[in-house]
Design brief:
The complex is a heterodimer of chains A (about 160) and B (about 500). By secondary structure, chain A is an alpha+beta fold. Chain A has two helices and eleven strands. In chain A, a hairpin with a 2-residue loop joins strand 5 (about 80-85) and strand 6. Chain A is elongated, with a radius of gyration of 27 Å. Chain B has two domains: about 1-15 and about 25-245 and about 250-285, Cytochrome Bc1 Complex, Chain C (Up-down Bundle), CATH 1.20.810; about 300-510, no CATH class. Chain B has a four-stranded parallel β-sheet with strand order 7-6-8-9. The two termini of chain B are about 55 Å apart. Classes of the chains: A alpha+beta (about 160), B alpha/beta (about 500). Strand 1 of chain A pairs antiparallel with strand 1 (about 245-250) of chain B, so a sheet runs across the interface.
Chain lengths: ~160, ~500
């Protein structure tokens, strides 16, 4: 009897372990949906142009710090927007990284969309302008259920890619 | 406040403890060996993991295939090993969780026990990444989800120039080197920290139990093997970075936090994780702060026999060179930071005998506000009237629920700090000086000693296997150790007392 009770207790333990290792199932994306993932890092334009120092200004500096130009390190914020037709899927203002705000702005966002045809617009402004975009792409996609569409920005070609 | 939380926790824990104590003897009860059982499951994980490592290939293209080979082609061994690896990893999360809850609700984490508690927190931070990185290596849809979600979580820490999660957006971006790194972390890096962490967790304990009883080991292994055979672990479909995993068979033991990354945000998940860890870390110092009095050494009575050093469960007593010019070479010294005043050292001291009549009862080592003299006085005062024959003297541990219940119901109980606080000569004293015809040692419920080794040392002393031994003239049939069968089968302490009294009466009638 004792052995039966012990076996039963161990069996219950095993069932709990086995059950919670697979159940309940986790539904990440509904069957009729897909995902658009935006991911890239982008260094926005600097807030100001480099300025050539005058000779007087250079003379006032210690000899080891006499650089001919004074370039502000700070960068503009990055304004990002992604739309499907007229619906805004994701919109954000991204701050440059680094304590001097001179690094890249990082963007990573997953957006769940219904599967089907989408007229996608992606725009980015990195020059501090309040309106309009410096870079943009428009594309029409037929997104299958469960598909992961990735939006990235190619720093070499300075263009968005959607794949 | 905190006492109420402990009390509430104990009431809830009782729902689990009660059926478990019906099913198991105290020695075989897994609830009394949760820490050791966790280490044992780690051993199973290690051994099964070595087999998996032999066949595992660390590359994007072949990781999945090698696991599939083990699961399906070599199902009779590799498949079983894979399942065993998975289920033992899950089982140890259960034992860790119960271990933490139990130590908390029984107040075994405060005062001088803070070190064992605090060093347990980083172990949790090692165990979880270890398990999660294992899921990563399979490189199926679940691995894809785990990889991306883990990267999203790590991206919230401002140390990466580019979003790490971006590396999992297409197969071209993912390199074999990344798998090599994950395999290194899972197979070597984290396990090394785990071994060191376990050592640190127990190194201040005297005689830490890192292995459960053999029968329990066999039972645990058998349970995991049967589970592996009946319900083998299998993979999802191979990871496809162009697709988003939709429905996942989720391992809630390791991945319970992951849905929160999507439901809240990675930042709030970090707040949750760091918040819980911080609360756990500072818990030992949460009010009300209570400093216990520590054991004190009386050099006039200390002969430097070292038994208190051998028996102290927390390594709080050490031998140092004699300071009083006595002929003995060494004397006991108590480390105030480690002593939790359990009194086990007093029970080990050969001079803590109640028969001393020419001099005051001052042992070589004693607990100031619960001294051996006080226990002797309690014995004399708690002797039952002759009308109750056969008279039984009950000893109970101060912090044990059974003792509280007995006292609440108006029963007479001599309380000691721990059952091993009672030097065996006190048992001889009770019987030979006719203070009772029988002795019931309640001990801690189910042998779950509040001070780790109390029940073990008491048994060994009464069975005359460990010094100080019970005198041969003492009839051990008159002493009932409540945590041992047949007495442990009677869960109500009052009924246990009645049953023991009846058995003594029967014995006396036979005599």
């Amino acid at each position: 009897m004792k052995l039966f009770k012990e076996s039963l207790a161990w069996a219950v333990f095993a069932v709990v372990v086995g059950l919670l290792s697979v159940w309940p199932r986790y539904n990440l994306v509904d069957a009729d949906n897909a995902i658009i993932t935006v991911t890239y890092a982008h260094a926005a334009q600097r807030v100001g142009e480099c300025r050539i120092l005058t000779q007087e200004e250079l003379n006032e500096l210690p000899p080891n710090m006499r650089k001919p130009s004074d370039c502000p390190r700070e960068r503009h914020v990055v304004r990002f927007e992604m739309r499907s037709g007229d619906e805004v899927l994701y919109k954000d203002v991204l701050l440059p990284s680094g304590i001097w705000s001179d690094g890249k702005a990082n963007i990573y966002q997953r957006v769940v969309v219904p599967a089907g045809r989408h007229d996608i617009f992606v725009g980015m402004n990195d020059s501090g302008g309040k309106a309009g975009f410096d870079y943009e792409i428009r594309t029409s996609l037929d997104i299958a259920s469960g598909r992961n569409v990735v939006v990235q920005f190619n720093p070499e070609s300075q263009q968005f890619t959607v794949h | 406040m905190i006492e109420r939380v402990h009390s509430l926790g104990r009431s809830i824990f009782e729902l689990l403890r009660r059926p478990m104590s019906r099913a198991f003897d105290s020695e075989q009860n897994p609830l009394n060996h949760l820490g050791a059982l966790t280490v044992y499951f780690c051993w199973i994980v290690l051994v099964s993991g070595i087999w998996l490592l032999i066949f595992f290939r660390t590359s994007v293209s072949s990781a999945f295939e090698s696991v599939e080979y083990l699961t399906h082609e070599q199902w009779y061994l590799g498949g079983v090993m894979r399942s065993l690896h998975r289920y033992a990893s899950d089982a140890l999360i259960v034992t860790i969780l119960l271990h933490v809850i139990k130590e908390f609700i029984f107040n075994r984490y405060r005062l001088n026990r803070w070190f064992n508690w605090v060093t347990g927190v980083p172990l949790v931070w090692i165990i979880f990444p270890l398990g999660i990185s294992g899921y990563w290596l399979v490189w199926d849809e679940l691995a894809q989800y785990v990889a991306i979600s883990s990267a999203e979580l790590l991206d919230r820490v401002p140390i990466f120039t580019n979003p790490m999660a971006g590396n999992f957006m297409s197969a071209e971006l993912l390199s074999d080197r990344f798998f090599t790194l994950m395999a290194f972390l899972h197979l070597i890096g984290l396990p090394i920290f785990l071994v060191f962490g376990i050592w640190l967790h127990v190194f201040r304990l005297n005689g830490p139990r890192i292995n459960p009883p053999r029968r329990m080991m066999a039972a645990a292994l058998l349970a995991m093997l049967v589970l592996s055979a009946v319900f083998p672990a299998i993979s999802h479909d191979q990871a496809d970075l162009a697709m988003a995993p939709q429905v996942l068979r989720f391992d809630w033991f390791y991945l319970h936090v992951y849905p929160l990354i999507q439901a809240w945000s990675p930042g709030w998940v970090w707040v949750l994780l760091i918040g819980i860890s911080t609360l756990l870390t500072i818990a030992p110092w949460a009010p009300p702060a209570r400093k216990t009095t520590v054991a004190v050494v009386d050099l006039d009575n200390c002969n430097g026999c070292k038994r208190c050093v051998d028996d102290c469960p927390f390594g709080a007593v050490e031998m140092v060179p004699r300071t009083d010019g006595s002929n003995y070479t060494h004397e006991a010294a108590v480390d105030q930071d480690l002593c939790i005043s359990c009194g086990i050292c007093v029970g080990a001291c050969p001079t803590a005998t109640p028969f001393r009549s020419r001099s005051a009862l001052i042992p070589g080592i004693d607990v100031p506000n619960h001294s051996a003299a006080v226990i002797r006085q309690d014995i004399i005062e708690h002797a039952e009237p002759a009308a109750n024959a056969p008279r039984v003297m009950v000893f109970g541990c101060r912090d044990d629920e059974q003792t509280r219940r007995m006292l609440k119901d108006g029963n007479s109980v001599v309380t000691v700090r721990c059952m091993a606080h009672l030097q065996p000569s006190f048992l001889d004293f009770v019987l030979s000086r006719d203070h009772a015809e029988g002795i019931l040692l309640l001990g801690c419920e189910d042998g779950n000693c509040n001070y780790r080794l109390g029940a073990e040392w008491t048994e060994a002393r009464i069975n005359r296997e460990r010094d100080p031994r019970l005198r041969k003239r003492t009839d051990t049939s008159k002493i009932a150790m409540g945590w041992q069968p047949p007495w442990s089968d009677i869960k109500d302490p009052a009924k246990r007392l009645a049953a023991f009294r009846a058995s003594l009466a029967e014995e006396q009638g036979d005599g």
